[in-house]
Design goal:
The complex is a heterodimer. By secondary structure, chain A is mainly alpha-helical. Chain A has helices spanning about 1-10, 15-20, 20-40, 40-45, 75-110, 115-130, 130-145, 145-175, 175-185, 190-200, 205-225, 235-245, 255-280. The chains are: A mainly alpha, B alpha/beta.
Chain lengths: ~280, ~575
């Protein structure tokens, strides 16, 4: 797959590459846009996201406030822009740690099999036996509300899917001839596991991590909505949706714009995931 | 024979790739008479399967299209027929069988129903009539008890019986033409002979015309009436079998004929006599009463305790330094398990393996360390044997680094030398397996084995997946390497002709046991065991006047430890 990657890089002009991988291109562009917005937040946001202007409470979208204002007179556009930083962070951190933990455990369990495998896979079963949100909420309740609790809870619960994916791949790959060859050449187990088998096993998980990012994003929003994640007055899309809820019939713009941002970002991740899958040949 | 059943004129198939159009089949023309068996010969990528897929318009991708020519079947031009009309032709007029019967039979449908389905669809029989017809066909293709076996599922049969079932499915609608795409390549040589014989019988009984796609000229010589040689989508030569075999017109046909392993070679054909043999009194490898058992597949619900299958059952063997020993046997005979047991890759159940004087069972650590630095393995599937993510250079460098005998600064130079040894251009160091051909990959695999500077190389069916001309090249490479580097070679193969060409000594395995061993020429000239004789007899010879043997196995003495379910092969270790 890397060879395909390298070949694409070397031989095919970008225009044709993009033409052939529209999904990937659109997904990457969407995410790039959000990233740019997040980085440029101080430059492009017209107002301070937590500045309250009592004079313009619940103002309709207008030229001065393109996305309107909320019940405290805060500018929604500025809050959506600053919220991008938090929500991207949630999606990335919420995926990276489960990915790393799950990949490691899956690799070890799949490669060694036997008792190691049994222990880890029963642990996976136990975690999967609880409804996901319930487990998340209980962990956060123990640790106390806040983003770092959310990340820890994600890491503790989210790794199971990655562990299962990688383990299944490892079970297949460890009986491949090149794995046997590596054993017969006296390579150490760690080398066989991490240098030879893991790179061949990981493509599927990378693709999955993109759709997982969508779920994490929605989870983060849900947790914040329940008041256990990001604390007011920090601008985060889930919190904003929650705050706007009571005004939904009179001031729809408070919930609409952050909600839309969640949808578009999720859409971007999911396109990127599909595109990556196509590109890396995961479904072949 | 009357006029042609099928007449192909200027058939051209093209596919657009990256803006340009590649020609897959280039204006091929030939006729197929009633009752004729035509052998389509060529190497992989020559377009032999593509032609047959074009005939029934089952091209592998919608982008690939027939761009010219006519395919006349009884006056109908199939090339211009609509998809609906085509469906009536497939099965009813042209039947197909494929290389791998397992993947072309529906695993959850009874064998008989799969045959009856076609009969009902194409001939409009009611279920009772269809069943009767299917039972009759099953009998015709050699099922011993068709009425009972109608209700069995594909997994209950051996590979050979499955191929018979596929033929039965193809015959169910009484086609005029049967296309057989490498029908025996996945089968053992004795089973192959039976299937080929069946095809010829069917031709005689039903007046069927057969297009037989194969890479094995021996098969063509034995079964076909005429031969068509293909290369790069072009028909190089087409004519009656005897003329093509005796006076090939095209240089490529000559080289194909030459690389057939049953041809006597002009030079170096006799195995090298190991002159050094008497000097080395200590065998490099000594195997004594080795037994390797595996738990039997399937759930032993009705049996108490675990059933075990002995893949290797009491094998004893001594191999001297510098010797080349061939191990032959059919799939499930335990050859590969033996190889893996020798290298310590599979636990031994009992017995001893000692390598260069140290015993694998008793001094496991020490012996394993020795094996890892002094023995190496070459695998069957060249692509699966190389890590797809590493370049050939990285892969070799890693082996050198882990083995630790080469100073880091000298590694790039050594990688180059290894590539030279296996006659690969040094530029291949930067390429990945996927961009290499099968033969090149296999050379890289051999280079990896040589990187450990081994005393012993075990080659497990290392040419089975390659085209004949490439096979011949790899065998030459082995022959060259073993003299130059004084290698001891344990060469596992199911192809006896190759073993005869390369090895000094041959060991014949059958159901986990050694049934015969001895000097190659002696064993091949005078097989003492009935199984060896059957194996040797079943090789299709390139001389059309040597009759194809029946391929019957001697009555098997059921091994004690091996419960066999309805003629299934023991276990396939490949």
């Amino acid at each position: 797959m890397t060879s395909a990657l390298a070949a694409t890089r070397m031989n095919v002009p970008w225009s044709r590459f993009l033409g052939r991988h529209m999904t990937l291109a659109i997904g990457a562009a969407t995410l790039g846009l959000f990233l740019a917005v997040a980085l440029a937040a101080p430059l492009i946001s017209p107002y301070d996201p937590i500045y309250q202007d009592a004079a313009v409470r619940l103002a309709m979208p207008s030229l001065a406030h393109p996305f309107g204002t909320d019940n405290f007179g805060r500018d929604i556009l500025s809050r959506v822009i600053w919220g991008t930083r938090i929500d991207l962070q949630i999606a990335v951190i919420g995926v990276v740690f489960p990915f790393l933990i799950g990949t490691f455990i899956g690799t070890v369990a799949g490669f060694f099999g036997g008792i190691v495998d049994t222990v880890f896979m029963r642990l996976v079963d136990i975690i999967l036996a609880f409804p996901f949100l319930v487990l998340m909420l209980s962990i956060i309740a123990i640790l106390g509300p806040g983003l770092s609790s959310f990340y820890i809870a994600m890491a503790l619960v989210g790794w199971v899917s990655y562990a299962r994916l990688i383990r299944a791949q490892m079970l297949v790959l460890k009986s491949s001839d090149y794995a046997v060859a590596a054993v017969s050449l006296g390579f150490s187990r760690a080398r066989i596991m991490f240098r030879h088998l893991l790179p061949n096993a990981v493509a599927g998980s990378i693709v999955f991590s993109m759709s997982d990012a969508v779920l994490v994003l929605l989870n983060g929003a849900a947790i914040s909505y329940l008041g256990l994640g990001v604390q007011p007055p920090v601008a985060e899309w889930g919190v904003m949706v929650a705050e706007g809820q009571s005004f939904i019939t009179t001031a729809w713009w408070i919930t609409l714009f952050p909600g839309l941002s969640i949808v578009v970002l999720a859409f971007g991740f999911s396109l990127l995931g599909d595109g990556l899958g196509e590109w890396l040949g995961v479904n072949e | 024979m009357s006029g042609p059943v099928l007449s192909i004129r200027d058939l051209t198939v093209k596919v657009p790739i990256d803006g340009e159009t590649r020609t897959l089949i280039d204006a091929v023309s030939f006729d197929l008479a009633r009752g004729e068996i035509l052998g389509l010969v060529g190497e992989s990528g020559s377009g032999k399967s593509m032609i047959c897929r074009a005939l029934v318009k089952l091209l592998p991708s919608p982008a690939i299209a027939i761009t010219g020519g006519t395919v006349l079947l009884d006056g109908k031009d199939l090339a211009t027929l609509s998809e609906d009309a085509m469906r009536a032709v497939r099965g009813a007029e042209i039947g197909m069988i494929f290389q791998n019967p397992t993947s072309h039979l529906d695993p959850v449908m009874r064998i008989g129903d799969q045959i009856a389905e076609g009969i009902r669809y194409h001939q409009g029989f009611d279920p009772r009539e269809a069943r009767a017809a299917a039972v009759e066909i099953l009998g015709q293709v050699g099922f011993p008890d068709p009425a009972r076996q109608y209700d069995n599922y594909p997994h209950e049969f051996s590979g050979g019986m499955r191929q018979r079932a596929m033929i039965a499915v193809a015959l169910s609608c009484n086609p005029k033409i049967l296309i057989a795409d490498e029908p025996t390549t996945a089968l053992d040589v004795t089973i192959q002979a039976q299937i080929l014989r069946l095809l010829m019988d069917l031709r005689d009984k039903r007046g069927l015309s057969i297009i037989l796609i194969t890479h094995d000229l021996g098969i063509v010589a034995q079964t076909c009436d005429s031969i068509a040689v293909l290369r790069n989508g072009q028909l190089l030569e087409h004519g009656p079998k005897r003329r093509v075999l005796a006076e090939p017109q095209h240089a490529y046909t000559v080289s194909l004929l030459k690389s057939h392993p049953s041809m006597p070679e002009e030079s170096g054909g006799t195995p090298l006599t190991p002159a050094a043999l008497p000097i080395a009194l200590q065998p490099l490898l000594e195997i004594d009463d080795l037994v390797v058992r595996f738990p039997a597949p399937g759930l032993g619900i009705f049996k108490k305790g675990k059933t075990e299958i002995a893949a290797v059952n009491g094998v004893s063997l001594r191999i001297m330094p510098g010797e080349t020993v061939g191990i032959v046997g059919e799939s499930g005979s335990g050859k590969s398990t033996l190889a893996r047991a020798i290298l310590g890759l599979t636990p031994l159940t009992s017995g001893h393996v000692s390598f260069a004087g140290s015993d694998l069972a008793q001094q496991r650590r020490q012996t394993l360390a020795k094996l890892r630095t002094e023995a190496a393995m070459v695998f069957q599937d060249p692509y699966n044997a190389l890590n797809p993510r590493l370049t050939i250079g990285d892969m070799l460098a890693e082996v050198l680094k882990v083995q630790g005998n080469t100073p880091a600064a000298r590694i790039p130079e050594r990688v180059g030398e290894l590539l030279d040894l296996v006659e690969l251009d040094r530029a291949f160091a930067t390429r990945r397996p996927r961009s290499l051909s099968g033969g090149q990959c296999q050379r890289a695999g051999i280079a990896r084995a040589l990187a450990v500077d081994p005393k012993l190389i075990i080659a497990d069916e290392c040419v089975a997946a390659l085209d004949v001309t490439i096979q011949a090249q790899i065998i030459d490479l082995f022959r060259d390497l073993k003299t130059r580097m004084n290698l001891t070679l344990l060469f596992i193969a199911h192809d006896l002709a190759i073993v005869r060409n390369l090895c000094d000594r041959v060991v014949v395995m059958y159901r986990g046991e050694i049934v015969e061993e001895g000097r190659c020429d002696a064993v091949f000239a005078n097989p003492r065991h009935a199984y060896t004789a059957a194996l040797i007899g079943a090789i299709p010879d390139i001389d059309p006047d040597k009759p194809l043997p029946r391929g019957d196995l001697p009555p098997r003495s059921e091994p004690k430890a091996a419960p066999v379910v309805r003629g299934q092969p023991l276990i396939s270790m490949q």
